C-alpha cells in the first residue's frame, strides 16, 4: 500500500514538474505565432489591397476586399510608359543577375587573397577594407556618377553592374574571408604537392568548399539589388531601361491616385522573384549556417 502511494506521489510530482515546462512552451509558441502574424500582416495587406478597387483602397481600412478587382493585375501586366511588365522584369533580372555574378567572382577572389595568401600590408589593407563598411553609400555616389558620366555610361546598366566586379562590397568579402579561414590548410598543401598554384588551388579546392558562403552572398546581393531604388533612379532615364522598382514610381506619376490598385498588383509581381529566389536557395543558406563551424 505504501509502495503504491509512494509511486502515485512520485508520478504526481513528476507531472507537476512537467506542467510548468508545458505552459512555458505554450507561452513561447503563442508569442512566436503572434510575432509571425505581426510580421506577415504587411504582406497580407499588400496581397489584399492588390485586389481592391481604387476607391476602396483609399476609403476603407478593412483587410479583406469587399469586391475583387482582378483587372488590377491585367493593368499592371500592361506596364507603364508603353513598356510591358515583362520588359521591366527582364531589366531587373539582368541587373540583379549581373550584380550576383560580379559579387560572387570578385568578392571570392579578394577574400581568398586576404584569407589564404601572405603578402605585404595584408593586415592594413584588410582593415581599410573593413572600414569602408561604415562609409555611407551616398558619400561616394557623386564621385561615381561623375566618373561614369565622363565615360559615357550614364543611362546604361554598366554603373549598376560594373562596380560589383571590383569587389566593392566589403561586407561580402568579410563574410567569405571568415568562412575561408575555417577551412583546413592541409587541403591547399596537398594541392600544392600535386602541382597546383594559388589560382588552381582557389578554383579547384577552395571555391567548391566555399559554396555555402557564396550562395549566401548571392542571395543577399540579389535581394538588395532587386530592391534598390535610389541608385537606379540616379543612373537610368529611359523608360525602356527601367526596372520594376522604378516602374512603380512611374506608375503612380502617370496615373495619379487612380492607379493605387494596379500599383499594388505590380508590387506583388515584383515581390514574386525574390520569394522564389529565396525558396530555391534556402536549403543552401541553411547548409552554410550549419557548416560554418568547420575548423582546420
TrEMBL record:
CDD domains: TM_PBP2
Membrane topology type: Multi-pass membrane protein
Transmembrane segments: 26-48, 93-114, 126-148, 160-180, 201-226, 259-281
SUPFAM superfamilies per the UniProt record, alphabetical: MetI-like
Regions annotated as coiled coil: none
Sequence ranges assigned to domain ABC transmembrane type-1 in this UniProt record: 89-281
InterPro entries named among the record's database cross-references: MetI-like, MetI-like_sf
UniProt entry keywords in alphabetical sequence: Cell membrane, Membrane, Transmembrane, Transmembrane helix, Transport
UniProt-annotated location(s): Cell membrane
Family under the similarity heading: Belongs to the binding-protein-dependent transport system permease family.
Name the record gives this protein: Carbohydrate ABC transporter permease
